[in-house]
Amino acid sequence: TPFPGPPPAPVLGNLLQLPTTKVWERLNEWGLTYGPIYQIHLFSTPLLVLNTAEAAREVLDAKSVLYSNRPLPKIIEMTGFDKGVVLEHDPLRLRQARKLLHLVLQPRQLSYYRAVLEHHVNVLLHNCLHEPDGFVEHIRHLTAGIAMEISHGHRVTSRDDPFVKKANVFADNFAEASLPNNHIVDWLPFLANFPGWLPGMGFKEKARRYREQYWSLAEEGHQMVKDDIAKGLARPSLTYKALVEGKPGEVPDDVIAFTATQVYTGGADTTVSTLSSFILFMVKHPEVQRKAQEEVDRVIGSDRLSSFADRESLPYVDALTAEVLRLRPPVSVVTREAGQDDTHNGYLVEKGTIILVNFWGMLRAEEHYPDPHSFKPERWLGKDHSDPTHPFNVAFGFGRRHVSCPGQHLAEELVFTTVARILALFDIAPIKDEHGVSVIPSDDSTNGGITFPVPFRCSIQPRSARARDVLEGLEHEL
Ligand code: HEM
One GO cellular component from the entry (predicted)? Predict the structure, then answer.
């Protein structure tokens, strides 16, 4: 017998019971009724929902060979976004792509980029001083700058950088094509012929445009590095290392070009999401902000800015970042596919079953996170990073070696450094309306493959005259 789950309707299955936005919330509610692993149907295709971290480890870690396949949604195939790494389903190309990522993202390699990272963080701080309302744009500029350095050795200085502009178009296209509520429909192959869901020619035209933009971006980036190499100007990057240090022809050029391009998809928006959520939580939880600022002041003082090496001596700041990631995991759900029939806990999982890994739900499991919807950094004080319930061990994915996030070390370093430096120098607060009353932003987040807080305004001001001097002194970073 298959896993139990909410009873499906004839023909449509559970389709009409799924909301069109934020499916993860409904998946989580069902988990409370049907348990940590349950099955739903869309039309005749079974989907297995993994709603706790334990369930994900039992299935995706312990049986990684059976469950590491990625489904190939029709629209993803049409746009060519499956070429690269994030949705690459060809095992050989995926292996090659992940090897390339490790050339730059392993902790040992990352230390090379530390100065680059701190430079871009300081640019963000300086930009927030002069144009606080544009904080989301500054965060985007930060993550784009770091991703471009790592993928192509491209130093982003101008906010109008044409390469970043094109990459943003691609990232938006990618997010749109992989929206989870389209996902479920798209990833059932026969639905590609279902006119009600995929409006005919308009849709095909869009896929063609996405494809063209993606391919030209990948080619342009690749050529840029080749030109830099020829001129002796290339800086160490994924593309440079693959071209110069790898054996010639070992990895096809298009694998290099698409993988480098997808560093941007994997790395830029996820971190934008986390840092924007951090700002939001600071607006809403002034007492947490004061506590974290007090820790930074006491431990680091005002003679220098903190860096990643300070993480252990700033446990409250570290706990704060963990709690942001728990309540606002940038990626709410990912999918896998069962490669063969399997029997799990006595239930049958048929080959071809789509696996929905519900990070959002698993990070709100009441048995691990009492009062799960509240923002409480203290829950992480004294908890080791190796704790299996720690958000750093959940929000970056499961499935040993094959499929979890290769950018985790970079993300942890970037998020910590940025958060600690912002706390040292700025006060973040609600804006006031015309009557002097604080305007508290909404808790809501957007729908999508990567979710963000819905746009909000807040006040970001230097904490003191001395903080202002430090920020002014960062001018030379620009
Ligand atoms: C807070 C920040 C981040 C979070 C929460 C996050 C989370 C994730 C998750 C959940 C996945 C999917 C894993 C799976 O399919 O099971 C993923 C994949 C990926 N991430 Fe991250 N990520 C973050 C930052 C980054 C950064 C900074 C980079 C690189 C610069 C990066 C690069 C990638 C890539 C390339 C993949 C695709 C890997 C593959 O599918 O084989 N990520 N990430």
Answer: membrane
Number of domains in the chain: 1
Choosing from 142, 270, 273, 418 the residue with most ligand 1 atoms within 8 A of its CB, the one to mutate for a pocket test is 270
Please give the residue range of the domain that contains residue 272: 15-477
Tracing tokens 């799990």 back to the chain, one arrives at: 344
In a domain, 8, yes or no: no
- CATH number of the domain within which 19 lies: 1.10.630.10
Residue 401 belongs to a domain: yes
Instruction: Report the alpha-carbon distance of residue 69 to residue 336 in Å, rounded.
Output: 6
Residue nearest ligand 1's atom 1 by CA: 271
Give the model confidence (pLDDT) of 354-402 as tens digits: 999 999 999 999 999 999 999 999 999 999 999 999 999 999 999 765 5
How many C-beta neighbours within 10 Å does residue 301 have? 10
Residues near ligand 1 with C-beta < 6 Å?
85-86, 98, 101, 147, 150, 262-263, 266-267, 270-271, 274, 329-331, 334, 395-397, 399, 403-407, 410-411
Residue 31 falls inside a structural domain = yes
Burial tier of 44 (Cβ tally within 10 Å: 0-12, 13-18, 19+): exposed
The DSSP letter of residue 401 is: T
SS3 of 157-192: the string is CCCCCHHHHHHHHHHHHHHHHCCHHHHHHHCCHHHH
| Widest CA span in the chain | 68
Query: For a pocket test of ligand 1, which of 94, 405, 410, 414 has the largest count of ligand atoms closer than 8 A to its C-beta?
Result: 405
Residues 6+ apart with CB under 8 A from 172: none
Instruction: Find the 23 Cα to ligand 1 centroid distance in Å.
Output: 20
Q: Reduce the DSSP state of residue 58 to 3 states and report it.
A: helix
Domain membership flag for residue 58:
yes
What is the separation of C-alpha 77 from the centre of its chain, rounded to a whole number of angstroms? 22
Binding residues: 405
**CA–CA separation, 30 vs 456, rounded Å?**
31
Extract the annotated binding site for heme. 405
310: pLDDT strictly greater than 50: yes
